[in-house]
Amino acid sequence: MRDNGEKLRCRFENVAAGEHTLAFEAVDRYVTLGRVTLYFADAPVKPCHLGPEPFGEQTDERIPAVCEGALRSDTLRRFGIAAEDVPPVALTYAGHGYWEHDRLYLPNEALPQTFAPPRYAVGRGKKKDVIAQFGEGVFSERDGTLCLEAEYALEESRSAWLTADGAGIRWEHLQAETDGGSGLAMYVERRGLFWEEGGPAMHYRCRFSGGKYYVWLLTRFDDATEDACAVGVDGRMQPRAAQYGGGAFFTYSSQFLWVWTLLSEMEIPAGEHVFSVAAVRSGLRIDRIYLTKGRELPPDDGHFSASKRTP
Question: How many Cα neighbours within 13 Å face the side chain of 196?
Fold first, then answer.
């Protein structure tokens, strides 16, 4: 399944008019289903990451009680290890010096990591409003680093916003593995698209102390058709040839993984500027952005803290 299996689609042919029963059979245990949308006849499919607005009487949605003992024994039987004993997946880096060697047979740098608790938690009976939890104001550098969540661009404010390409295509959000599995990443959903320039972009208004910054992106791609983007400041995009990978960053050892990718270095003057990330190849997922004056590696999920926002 792609995109964490969050959107699946099928088509029924030659369905006779009248009353029918739509049934779902769980082939695997513990599969959860959020919403189901039915499109009739030739009605166009409306892509949406949140599903249709519910209608009718709203009731408190409750998950049936789970027998923890049975779940644990089933897990041990299937996988031979308890869930709490599974070590966190290592965090992969493509950092300084990465492109100085032929990557075909070289393993990636991977370090142990810890995970943060859920960030976008929602209380029972409350409406899920993730954007309201982003905060307000300009993103401010501190101690030579600037940390951004890519999904901040969803707020469409003076401090963070999205722009579309000439056809109206924009970045959209999907689930990520950070923030205890509650995090979000951004991508251009329709695959196979390419923009040499003028691609859909994400913009963040930031305050910098000025100097040379290393640009890191927490990315994921499935193949070489999804491995490129461009960055810029105040509308002036950096040529992709100036990136460490020469404009793309696919390697076989990095596909299907979340990787902290050192994209490039940039000179940014002191003051308030707009940092932008533009799509070059669709399908690339970006979860976080880390700008730093130092040569340190970006922090793992358990230690990542988004930059403070000020008026």
Answer: 0
